[in-house]
Predict the structure.
Amino acid sequence: MPLRNTAEAYGSLAKFLHWAIVLLIVPQYFLAEAADELPNGIEKLQILDWHKSLGMMVLLLALARIGWKVMNRGLPGPIGEPWQRKAAAAGHGLLYLLILAQPISGWAMSSAANYPVTLFGWFQFPALVAENHDLHETLEEVHEVFFYSLIAVAAVHIAAALYHHFALKDGVLRRMLPFSRS
């Protein structure tokens, strides 16, 4: 499987970054819910540290994915009607925006609460904003809205991929499946 994208399929690095981001986002909801159920204390802080670390991994991998996409222009050719291609481009753009905005809003929310954001304790990210209780409360709501928006857009993305695969049988899904050559 080639590292770089071809006209028929995404390369192994693009596929890896895509699926790594997916696999890191999925547990985020469960970690946040688990932390919400706990009283303040060490266990809650440990779960939130995992949640924040995974979120920062999503951010770093998404930046790598975007950088790779910009540097690796050999993308698979568009499939479908012009309106489908425009909808796909808009959907991908919105997904990237939300995948970036979600961890950044969490990072800013933690900063506003004066809580550190680390990457698995290896190093600490600088605060994005100064401590501010009202800003923290606002960012908490923004973070939640971004999450549900991301879920909605991802659901449409998945539905479109399945539609292409099962109804149109045009190979769109296979281009991004791991271990698939086309």
